[in-house]
Amino acid sequence: MNIDTTGIEYIVKKVMAEIDCAEEGGKPLKDGELGIFNDMENAIDAAFIAQKSFMRASMAFRSKIIAAMRAEMLKKENMEMICQMAVEETGMGNYEHKLLKHELAATKTPGVEDLVADAFTGDDGLTLIEQSPFGVIGAVSPSTNPSETIICNGIGMLAGGNTVVFAPHPSAKKTSALVVKLLNKAILEAGGPENLIVTTVKPTIDSANTMFASPKITMLCATGGPGVVKSVLQSGKKAIGAGAGNPPALVDETADIEKAGKDIIDGCCFDNNLPCIAEKEVVVVEQVADYLIFNMKKNGAYELKDAQKIKELEELVIPGGRLSRDYVGRSAKVILKGIGIEVDDSVRVVIIETSKDHIFAVEELMMPILAIVRVKDVAEGIDLAVSLEHGNRHTAIMHSTNINNLTEMAKRVQTTIFVKNGPSYAGIGVGGEGYTTFTIAGPTGEGLTSAKTFTRKRRCVLVGGFTIK
Ligand code: NAD
């Protein structure tokens, strides 16, 4: 992708300043303009009113709106501005990778075509199972994929005939507000109504809780860590929980080791390891471990071996066992600099051989630090990979050419995404078949969410008619 950064910084600062101004309740944004409200209750009311008429809109009209949303998000200047803002505001991630993720969400999130009816016909007539809107959905979005989650949830939820209130992560509030604004602009220009997608200027845990409790919200969808997933599951409403992962990459002795080394580094460093699907630790069969490490180093891995430096790194990124937000989503270069090691941009991941219970293997770090744990054989490897995944049911990766080993791992690990012989991002449609999503619902079982996830199945029964068998 040809990136033109000229002038983007200026525009980003201007938009951020405009949103700052609105946050203080002042101009230029009027309350409710382009879906941005000062108050959560008002945002919910507006989305509630909007849904009443939107549920009657034709599928052609929904499609038109969704096409306009995609087109707006794919405008070069918007993509660049949003992705630059996301990096600047959150202090996390890699601008070029954010462009790819953003483009992926805008192009490969399914629309209304995802809503396929089921039918039963026979002597007693015709029974249709159709997918109806839930109503107003309250969606919590993370700091790690701010624009992507709003695009992806926005398209899927509107395709299902719902309206949506977003409660974005406070540390990505400006980026999230900008995306909501641009989506509303696109909807209005396409002849659509106001307030199909709304949010608040100043999202907080309190405003999210107001949303969870509102009787006007009929479904909640949380994309984030364990805290927020637990909160929505306790709400008493229909809730979709897309929670944390700690994806292991297991490599056995039958794998194509050159390819595995490259794939693991490519997947691990994507957006500085922010994606919940990204490789977070490697489990490798002893027989091929040295050659795998050799191939990882050939593809941009820096191996840290000095015990003192490893200790320093631990204290830097996870002091007292709590993840340092200063290093989440930062590059390998910045992380190594923190312990006094200068490297150039060709270094993409820090690899470290550890024991199986080292904090680097056990914790979801969301930074390009990859623990590598040796095991004697694939059986021990599967046991360990399953335990490091912590029952999140999120993502696992395996490199192997032995179908029995792959099958055994798939059965044991029970993850929502299982990528065989590729980088983790193949699991969300980058170099792997299938649509994309940025809300992977492992805990509640909807899997890779799409428009149909955000609908209710309803049965319509016509007695004694329309069967032509
Ligand atoms: P986070 O859990 O800190 O925040 C997510 C959202 O939840 C934010 O909007 C935050 O304000 C809100 N929130 C947090 N605790 C809350 C509470 N108790 N009540 C109400 N709202 C609350 O997550 P993050 O750091 O932005 O994102 C990273 C985490 O999200 C990682 O664990 C990652 O694996 C996970 N994630 C999962 C998916 C998925 O599809 N399964 C996608 C992206 C991120």
Would you spell out the secondary-structure blueprint of this structure?
Blueprint: H1 8-23, E1 36-37, H2 40-54, H3 59-74, H4 76-90, H5 95-108, E2 118-122, E3 125-133, E4 136-141, H6 146-159, E5 163-168, H7 173-189, E6 197-200, H8 205-213, E7 217-223, H9 226-233, E8 238-242, E9 248-251, H10 257-269, E10 281-285, H11 286-298, E11 301-303, H12 307-317, H13 332-337, E12 349-353, H14 359-362, E13 369-375, H15 378-388, E14 395-399, H16 403-413, E15 417-420, E16 440-441, E17 447-448, E18 455-463
Parallel strand pairs: 1-6, 4-5, 4-7, 5-6, 7-8, 9-10, 9-14, 10-13, 11-12, 12-13, 14-15
Antiparallel strand pairs: 2-3, 3-18, 16-17
Domain Aldehyde dehydrogenase: 38-298
GO molecular function: acetaldehyde dehydrogenase (acetylating) activity
Pfam families: Aldedh (PF00171)
Descriptive report:
Strands 11-12-13-10-9-14-15 form a seven-stranded parallel β-sheet, with helices on both faces. Helix 6 (146-159) links the parallel strand 4 (136-141) and strand 5. The chain contains 16 helices and 18 strands. Helices cover 41% and strands 19% of the residues. With 469 residues, the protein is an alpha/beta fold. Helix 4 (76-90) runs antiparallel to helix 7 and helix 15 (378-388) packs parallel to helix 16. Bound molecules: nicotinamide-adenine-dinucleotide. The site of nicotinamide-adenine-dinucleotide (NAD) has 28 residues, from strand 4, strand 5, helix 8 and helix 9. Keywords: NAD, Oxidoreductase.
